[in-house]
Specification:
This protein is mostly helical. The protein is built from one helix and no strands. The longest helix has 19 residues. The chain is rod-shaped and about 65 Å long.
């Protein structure tokens, strides 16, 4: 049972390394999109 848990943790660590590319994730970066949403400017839409 311990070996299965260890394999799971190793796979999780590799996935996190690939996802976060060596940067420590924190609450400000986890769910932040790559680019901020663009606001539609009503003045220039016509």
């Amino acid at each position: 049972m311990f070996e299965a848990f260890k394999r799971f943790i190793d796979k999780l660590a590799k996935a996190n390394e690939k996802e976060f590319q060596g940067v420590n994730p924190d609450c400000c970066t986890i769910n932040r999109p790559e680019q901020p949403p663009q606001r539609h400017d009503e003045k220039n839409s016509h």
